[in-house]
Design goal:
Helix content: over 70%
Radius of gyration: 20 Å
Strand content: under 5%
Structural class: mainly alpha
Distance between the termini: 41 Å
Largest sheet: none
CATH topology: Growth Hormone, Chain: A
Shape: globular
Number of strands: 0
Number of domains: 1
Oligomer: single chain
CATH class: Mainly Alpha
């Protein structure tokens, strides 16, 4: 590989790291604000702290099932945009639109339904967005990329706190618009700049599909779960 190609790859890697960090920043901004403000909305209908906590823990339970399923589905996807971007192009804007509806729920049943829908969509987006880092960035540079993504995620705590401090008391419903706008801007930036069909990992997956043939190219979800359980038993 020439020096020029290496430099071009490094610049591309830094760019992808920025865009992935931006996507994670947008998602976590809504999640941190969600964790701060949705319990307040639930307490309008529920007096039990245990029930409020149970409702707030719904997203973690859903994540156990949704995230590995979506990760496997994304791995098996082949499009002109790649295997990640089609899901992000739909999932991030959809999550933003559902998120902004949360404070407008007229009843407890509607609020829980919107929370459930948002949790499903957001848990679907997370493993797909995080997979862009290993898709584009080689192992020797991956630790720095992951550090940048983690920093972006940590900064969202400050953003959510500032929105809660400066906006929520005066505009309790309007405050939900700010994380929504951040998410939409991040989505538009990511979609317009990144095509994971150009990544080395995607090209390697396509080449492997061509070699393996149509019957063995896709990994079924049950096989993924079986491998996870075997690995857990081996290292447990």
């Amino acid at each position: 590989m020439s020096v020029t190609a290496v430099r071009g790859s490094a610049i591309s890697g830094r760019s992808v790291t920025f865009y992935v960090a931006l996507a994670i920043f947008a998602r976590e901004s809504t999640w941190n604000f969600y964790d701060n403000q949705v319990p307040v909305l639930l307490r309008q209908y529920l007096t039990s702290a245990a029930l409020v906590g149970l409702c707030m823990g719904m997203d973690n339970v859903l994540g156990i099932f949704v995230q590995p399923w979506m990760g496997n589905r994304s791995d098996n996807t082949r499009t002109a945009w790649g295997r990640r971007m089609p899901y992000l192009a739909v999932g991030i804007p959809l999550a933003a639109l559902v998120f902004v509806l949360i404070p407008w729920a007229p009843s407890l049943a509607t609020l829980i339904a919107i929370m459930f829908l948002y949790a499903v969509i957001s848990n679907s987006v997370r493993p797909v967005a995080e997979s862009l880092v290993p898709d584009f960035i080689r192992p020797e540079r991956r630790s720095r990329a992951n550090a940048a993504v983690k920093i972006a995620s940590s900064l969202t705590v400050i953003v959510a706190a500032l929105i809660s401090l400066l906006v929520v008391d005066r505009y309790p419903r309007g405050a939900f618009v700010i994380p929504t706008v951040i998410m939409l801007v991040a989505a538009l930036t990511l979609i317009s700049r990144v095509r994971d069909s150009r990544s080395e990992a995607y090209q390697a997956a396509v080449a492997e599909d061509a070699t393996a043939g149509p019957d063995t190219a896709k990994v079924p979800f049950r096989q993924v779960i079986s491998e996870i359980l075997r690995d857990s038993a081996a290292y447990g």
